[in-house]
UniProtKB/TrEMBL annotation:
Domain of life: Eukaryota
Protein name: AGR2 protein
Keyword Endoplasmic reticulum: yes
Gene: Agr2
CDD domains the record matches: AGR (cd02960)
Length: 173
């Protein structure tokens, strides 16, 4: 187990150093009068006011202990589909409000957990996990070839799937 934590620490350091390098270049262009925003590292723009977990392990732990469902968004910074979904997700007031009832995680890399890729490793894809740590493979989007993919036009379906994940929770616990 030691090696694994070293690897994740190493990855984290890489991620942090990339983020810092990016921010350093950005600072000058922003005007100094803007009020300081929360650090956006964990939200990656999916909802800067929301509380995002840092790792899959932490997310599972929090879900189990808080009895809140977990929502995992797999995406990539240079994927136009991910970017388009992120924009509508972040601007959707009802989704942002409902998201507070979830443990939240967005990932730009794949985990070793095959359960998070029931039908392949594509982005963007959104999966729900309940506090018993069961992946809700039954909560799907509208595409039969990519069950957990959502386009910007599917944002209301994603919203109702979030409601479904919360509702299932109440009936089953």
């Amino acid at each position: 187990a030691m090696e694994k934590s070293y690897v994740s620490m190493f990855l984290l350091l890489i991620v942090i150093s990339c983020a810092l390098a990016k921010d350093a270049g950005k600072k000058d262009s922003k005007d100094a009068t803007a009020k300081p925003k929360l650090p956006q590292t964990l939200s990656r723009g999916w909802g800067d006011q929301l509380i995002w977990t840092q790792t899959y392990e932490e997310a599972l732990f929090r879900s189990k202990h808080s009895q809140k469902p977990l929502m995992i968004i797999h995406h990539l910074e240079d994927c136009p589909h991910s970017q388009a979904l992120k924009k509508v997700f972040a601007e959707h007031k009802d989704i942002q409000k409902l998201a507070e009832k979830f443990i939240l995680l967005n990932l730009v890399y794949e985990t070793t957990d095959k359960n998070l890729a029931p039908d392949g490793q594509y982005v963007p894809r959104v999966l729900f996990i309940d506090p018993s740590l069961t992946v809700r493979a039954d909560i799907t989007g509208r595409y039969s070839n990519r069950l957990y993919a959502y386009e910007p036009s599917d944002i209301s379906l994603l919203y109702s799937n979030m409601q479904k994940a919360l509702k299932l929770l109440k009936t089953e616990l």
